[in-house]
Input
Amino acid sequence: MSENVILVTGATGVLGREVLDRVRRTGLPVRAMTRRATLPEDPGVTWVTADLQTGAGLDAAFDGVATIIHCASDTRKPKHDIPGWRHLLDAAKPAGVGHIVNISIVGVDRIPYSYYKIKVAGEQLLAESGIPWSNLRATQFPDLLNAVFGVLSKAPFVLVPSRTVCQPVDQGEVADRLVELAQGAPAGRVADMGGPHIHQAADLARSWLKAVGRRRWVLPVRVPGKAGAGFRAAGLVTRENAVGVRTWEEYLAAKATR
Output
């Protein structure tokens, strides 16, 4: 088995695809993990079938792996992420994995939203695992905002949280940072990463609608409870770490087609 193998979980997702492409460019041996039984033909990448939720196939998938970049997350059933973490860590230890690089979200420890609580729990499991690690929290990916607005705009109006600011950061730039971390020494929690500009959520929705040519009312609504308070307190942004370069407007010009 080659040395310095980097394995990417969630390799078919929005971020995972970008990470996989960038690891391939490094020339390092790269392995991509998927639950699919039929594996893609992908020059320069070794695809393996394994399931984080059940643990099936992980021992073979992690054999010979030096570093894992963990991008997998079940946003539809986030409760699956915790068993996934436990299976990942239980398999990574005997395999001798020396570094796990995790992607998380800015604000997970400030906003008591259910999915965010699960992300925090995953971070804690990693930190307590005894396996060297790096953890990067990033702001909102444009592709995910694009998908959310695509769903919301099927109604006559688009609901957005009121008085809430967001900071879109290009997922390709986040992938660059994750691969940089994977090639370095484990660094623990690193500086957050946000996009170059901060926008009101309502303004993001209006600009998206204009870019895709849809006429809809944008309706800001007050999100109740502590989660809503966290949104209104700018918990989703990292003003001091606005290191991203590609803007939301540039993304819309190139990518928003739905």
The chain has a mean pLDDT of 94. The first strand starts at residue 5 and ends at 9. The longest helix spans residues 81-95. The chain has nine helices and eleven strands.
